[in-house]
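User
New here, help please:
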Amino acid sequence: MNSLIQINELESMLIAIIVLFLGYFINSKVKVLRKYNIPEPIVGGLIVAIFVAIMHAQGVDIAFKVPLKDTLMQMFFATVGLAASFKLLAQGGSRVFLFLALATAFIIIQNGVGVGLSSLLGLDPLLGLIVGSITLSGGHGTGAAWSQTFASEYGLHTLELSMASATFGLIMGGIIGGPVAQRLINKFNLKSAFGDGQKHHIEHPDLVTYSDKEEDRITSKNTIEVLFILLICVAGASHVKDLVDSFGINWLRIPDFVYALFIGVFITNVCEGTKVYKVNRETVDALGTISLSLFLAMALMSLQLWELMELALPMLIILAVQTLFLGLFAYFVTFRVMGSSYDAAIIAGGHCGFGMGATPTAVMNMGSLVSRNGPSPQAFMVVPIVGAFFIDIANLVVLQGYISFIQ
């Protein structure tokens, strides 16, 4: 029985910030990490997670209390909503559905790889869905939910496998996204329409870049105003969710952060249409970047890496093949179908993030890329909307189809 060290809320927040500082420092010293845009939260978070795993092996468990983690995630998605005016949505609306079709096609392939390899390796084909879109495109939450279904209906106890597979995907999605997209950018000499550098807001004050290097001109008043709006989005999300569930459609399992995103869309477009208030986009940009960075730092440092060691060799083989397939699909298919442009390269990097991990991982990949190469507002509109909402519905339909076929 391991002894437990419980880190309180304040100390956990301090460690999350240290994770970011650690990632910034290591990336500044290791050229290969900068070259391939490996995100700072991945670098710093993995180092802390490895330390925690070593302590676990020595008989000491370290537990972080991070109650703000989910709130920070909702705040980030609220900023995505605040950045999505109807003008922008009209310009890129068709690309949202094009990317949704691509992501859905890949889910079908992802589950085909999982089920096919499971059968070849002598495993239950249903386990192939666990190391397929259930955990890789769905994440930890979807994996936990389906584990209950598999246990009650099929007698398969897969919770530990689900958590380990989702953890593997979260790490690999954050690692491969930057190299895939940066190679495309370098190979085809792609440029942002807004140029590179860190002073985009001078010429484009309404541009939201999600770059941690952007020189934002914000004031304390603007910060308080936007923070107030973000908290309205976060607080309102739970009430809207309860209202939607009261109509009996809670089977969709729409997470709170999706509601926060759509409340943000509603607020920004009401303000834009009535001209009663102008949302300061530079402040939205800064608070969105801060929220995402802290959320990912908390998520990565809380990973229990020893669960990966419990994966059987056949499952690790399947997950390695899944990583390879996603990298190739994003490079050769996503990039070309989305237009073979700079925006398409950033979207391909984002696809690596949520195709193996989660939407915040996708945005983290894109944030690292645009910090170096220049803004891509289209990518930051298309990927979060598909990854945060539509892909879960598509995943549910595809999974039901596979289960019906297998059974």
